[in-house]
Amino acid sequence: MEERITNIEIKLAYMEDFVNQIQEVAVKQAEEIEKLKHDNQILSQKLKDVYDNMEGDIPNRKPPHY
Question: What is the pTM of this model?
Answer without folding.
Answer: 0.64
